[in-house]
Amino acid sequence: MSRKIISVRVVVAAGIGAALMFVLMRFVAIPSGVPNTNLNLAPAIVAIFAAIFGPVAGFLIGFIGHTLTDLTLGYGIWWTWVIADGIFGCLIGLFAKFYKIEEGDFRLKNCFIFNGVQILANILTWAAIAPTLDVLIYQEPADKVYLQGLVAAALNSAVVLILGSILALGYSRTRVKEGSLKSE
């Protein structure tokens, strides 16, 4: 019997998440004052989908959503940041079982875990991986790309902290907790 590598649920979640990410990155972006670095709501979408559907969905959403955005902006695909967005989603998804969003049990402790993971993932991907790859692959000036990475990490962390936490709490409250239904 063959085993499915990716479930239909994950594929659908990845498609919807990537589409939402694309729309938010492309059309709801506020310039930060640092070149090519914007404040947008897309990181919250990547984080919440990854927290619910896992690392594969998180990676696909970040990777596909960012790729689509770059394709439509007309300056080519910036692969280092596309890869970083995929890694960000994957990292959030790796710890999905600790958030207990899908179980309807997202509490203060889980919110702290979720935000601790997302802040560390943002710092790792945006302040370390993306700018380092920019320097190594594109020979970009280190001071420029590390500034962009630090600003992106800070802005993305704040967006996920606020919007991602609200989305996680709201979605979790729609889920039925295990053992909450009693027979009469």
Number of helices: 7
Structural class of the helix and strand makeup? Answer: mainly alpha
The helix/strand order is HEEHHHHHH
Q: Order of strands side by side in the largest beta sheet? A: 1-2
What is shown here, in short?
This protein is mainly alpha-helical and 184 residues long. It contains seven helices and two strands.
Task: List its traits.
two-stranded antiparallel sheet; about 180 residues; mainly alpha; 2 strands; single chain
Structure overview:
The chain is mainly alpha-helical and 184 residues long. Helices cover 73% and strands 3% of the residues. The chain contains 7 helices and 2 strands, in the order αββαααααα. It has a two-stranded antiparallel ribbon. Strand 1 and strand 2 form a beta hairpin. The protein is globular and about 60 Å long. The model has no long low-confidence stretch (mean pLDDT 93).
